[in-house]
């Protein structure tokens, strides 16, 4: 093995204290921008998202016997369903808000446990046949493109008036340019944390443009003075801080639970990549059933505390590949730091002061990357669109997913376009004959 591919720290090796902290911070930076962006987009609490991300990662490490160096952060796949669930009317006629989606997120996590039990009993072959690239690829494209209007609106509209604002658009464009520059042009640590650096740069530009007021009652000085250095995050616990929206149970289930089809497929893909990077087959040892259970329980824990659903992060897998540091102690250290950051009041104020166009600028890049990763899934899966069977499956998934934001099911429930596309894709793949209509 050459030096460029030599392992620096293996999975069970523990670094020295100083190096440990630096390596963990690197993973924290890698996941930070995306993990915080999801709650900012959906109206959830960013501090809670950091805490649930860290706790979920520690839970995942424990359930996988410390053999998979994976970090769990906020899942982008659930953004649109959370927004749809948040808009449902509550008993007082007002929108439920994002906590209304927590019931569905909890049940989506439970789906992972059911699948994990089935894998333990029957193996993984049936799941791979159920979710081939011809289904998962276009559904991932739908997730990215379905969020495109959200990103463009945040990047170009003034939140106070919902009208187009040239200033907001220019700030979003500058933030997007920074994200591209750090990702494509820069090297080293800059290329590892491009989203975080782009948000910081966009924040500074927005401050000079007057979108981050410093003085006055609503200014940063007053908000920082009112915040405590150590502050308990505003956890949203069912039956404690809010009542579960049972009146919309069917709708919330149909909006969020089917998304687990996609995130489970993403989880399998991440485990395959991690296996290649660390040189061990994690699907066999400790087993895909354990990693899925860890991911599902992390999402259920997040839902109980009011955080977004979790998923394994490709950004952190990229850090593993670049640094050749596979230590689960480093991943665990990043998780502990994330939990601690969630309890810092000043840090919460800084997060919540990020202007909307800055988030919109990075969202354009990230949502596009999601869509592109769906295309990559089909390419790497060698999906032949010259085959009419594959062509129709992909086409129908794309149209249903992108064209229908919400589909009514009877009179009591709604199904998001993404969920409908995923379900129809699975059914079409199961019933359509192979090579149908194609004569050799």
TrEMBL record:
Name where it mostly resides.
membrane
Keyword Signal, does the record have it? no
Q: Name one Pfam family in it.
A: Xan_ur_permease
Q: What membrane topology is given?
A: Multi-pass membrane protein
Keywords in alphabetical order:
Cell membrane, Membrane, Transmembrane, Transmembrane helix, Transport
Keyword match Transport: yes
Please state where this protein is localized.
Cell membrane
GO molecular function annotation: xanthine transmembrane transporter activity
| One cellular-component annotation, GO | plasma membrane
List membrane-spanning regions.
Answer: 44-63, 70-88, 100-119, 126-151, 163-182, 189-212, 249-268, 319-344, 356-379, 391-409, 415-434
The record's similarity note reads: Belongs to the nucleobase:cation symporter-2 (NCS2) (TC 2.A.40) family.
Output this protein's name. Uracil-xanthine permease
């Amino acid at each position: 093995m050459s030096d460029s591919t030599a392992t620096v720290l293996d999975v069970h090796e523990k670094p020295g204290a100083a190096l440990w902290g630096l390596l963990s911070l690197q993973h924290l930076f890698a996941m930070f921008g995306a993990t915080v962006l999801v709650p900012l987009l959906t109206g959830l609490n960013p501090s809670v998202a950091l805490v649930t991300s860290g706790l979920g990662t520690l839970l995942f490490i424990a359930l996988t016997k410390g053999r998979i160096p994976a970090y769990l952060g906020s899942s982008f796949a659930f953004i649109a369903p959370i927004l749809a669930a948040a808009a449902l009317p509550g008993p007082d006629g007002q929108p439920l808000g994002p906590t209304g989606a927590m019931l569905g997120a909890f049940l989506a996590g439970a789906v992972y446990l059911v699948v994990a039990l089935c894998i333990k009993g029957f193996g993984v072959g049936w799941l791979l046949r159920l979710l081939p690239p011809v289904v998962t690829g276009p559904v991932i494209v739908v997730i990215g493109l379905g969020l495109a209007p959200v990103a463009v609106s945040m990047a170009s509209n003034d939140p106070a008036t919902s009208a187009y604002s040239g200033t907001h658009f220019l700030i979003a464009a500058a933030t997007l340019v920074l994200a591209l520059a750090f990702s494509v042009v820069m090297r080293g640590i800059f290329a590892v944390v491009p989203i975080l650096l782009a948000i910081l740069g966009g924040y500074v530009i927005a401050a000079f443009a007057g979108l981050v007021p410093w003085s006055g009652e609503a200014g940063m000085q007053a908000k920082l003075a009112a915040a405590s250095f150590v502050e308990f995050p505003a956890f949203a616990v069912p039956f404690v801080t809010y009542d579960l929206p049972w009146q919309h149970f069917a709708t919330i289930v149909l909006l969020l639970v089917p998304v687990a089809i996609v995130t489970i497929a993403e989880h399998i893909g991440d485990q395959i990549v991690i296996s290649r990077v660390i040189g061990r087959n994690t699907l066999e040892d400790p087993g895909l059933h354990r990693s899925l259970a860890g991911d599902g329980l992390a999402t259920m824990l997040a839902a109980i505390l009011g955080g977004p659903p979790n998923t394994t992060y490709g950004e952190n897998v990229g850090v593993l590949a670049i640094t050749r540091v596979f230590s689960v102690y480093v991943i665990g250290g990043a998780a502990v730091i994330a939990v601690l950051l969630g309890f810092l009041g000043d840090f919460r104020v800084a997060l919540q002061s990020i202007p909307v166009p800055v988030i919109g600028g990075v969202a354009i890049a990230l949502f596009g990357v999601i869509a592109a990763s769906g295309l990559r899934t089909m390419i790497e899966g060698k999906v032949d669109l010259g085959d009419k069977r594959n062509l129709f499956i992909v086409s129908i998934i794309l149209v249903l997913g992108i064209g229908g934001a919400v589909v009514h099911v009877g009179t009591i429930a709604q199904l998001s376009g993404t969920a409908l596309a995923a379900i129809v894709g699975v059914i079409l793949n199961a019933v359509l004959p192979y090579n149908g209509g194609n004569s050799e």
